[in-house]
Amino acid sequence: MNNIDITPTIAISRCINFDKCRYNGDGDNNEFINTLKDYVTFVPFCPEVEIGMETPRKPIRLVEINNMIHLIQPFTKIDLTDKMLDYTNMLMTRLQNVDGFIMKTRSPSCGIKEVKIYDSDKKGANSRKGKGMVGGRITEMYSHLPIEDDGRLRNFKIREHFLTKLYVMSTLRKIKRTKSLDTLINFHKSNTLLMIAYNQSKLKELNKLMNQVDSIPIDQLLDSYEKMLGLIFRISPRYTSNITVLLRCVDYFKKNINDDEFNFILELINEYKNHKVPFSVPLNVIKGYVIRFNIEYLNNQSFFDPFPKALLDVNDSGKGVK
């Protein structure tokens, strides 16, 4: 792909594997995070601790008062809204150079979805679902980056999508620092098949931008490219799109293999289509032919290895998935 050393930077809720700073004095242990530690730089943070709250502490909750969301500690009746808003503003500046976020599930501060917002600080109050005070701001300001919570990352497909977007966006951020047009062009070429799998219509828009590289200042070009790339990788690809790209890859070498080999590949793709085998099965078989026939264009495509293989753990509890 690109000759760029990629070590993504991830901002993460401190209570996930880094500190026992939850309200009850406990912390969490997530095996995926333990694996990631060897491949990324983590920036842990804890909003509650960093606004001066003790550990352990009485729980806090989001309460909607006169159509405004407040952060309340029901036991003490203390309103922490202003403190948390000031902290959030500071944090957004502090985290400008990260490549992704892993947030604590359903936390009133860090949660990015499924966070309870109550209509009162009283016991038994009704609630609706929303976002945490810090997590919500992060999803607004950094929507082009991969943002997940630790619960959802127990799901294999969500992890795979998170890692793919993380490494793509991290690579681009490093290209932005170099301001090298040639490097951007090579990046675009090497990610073409991956982007086809993710979103062909948005890729067409990005291709139009790349056709204007000689008439756009490099800083403006890179900023526009980043925003459009984030849209391409907004959601994970459909299996039908993956099949489209697999068949496109087969077209490069099908004249060099016999009918039995060709039919075997088609059978594997069909089994993937019918959910009998994972995507990695036809993908790796096709990659074997790419290596065998030394097809330079395909060899350079991130579609086959969008992130380090050691991070591809197929174990999947499925917990926390919505």
From TrEMBL:
PANTHER family documented for this protein: INNER MEMBRANE PROTEIN
DUF1722 domain ranges (all copies): 193-308
Protein name, per record: DUF1722 domain-containing protein
Entry-linked Pfam families: 2-thiour_desulf (PF04463), DUF1722 (PF08349)
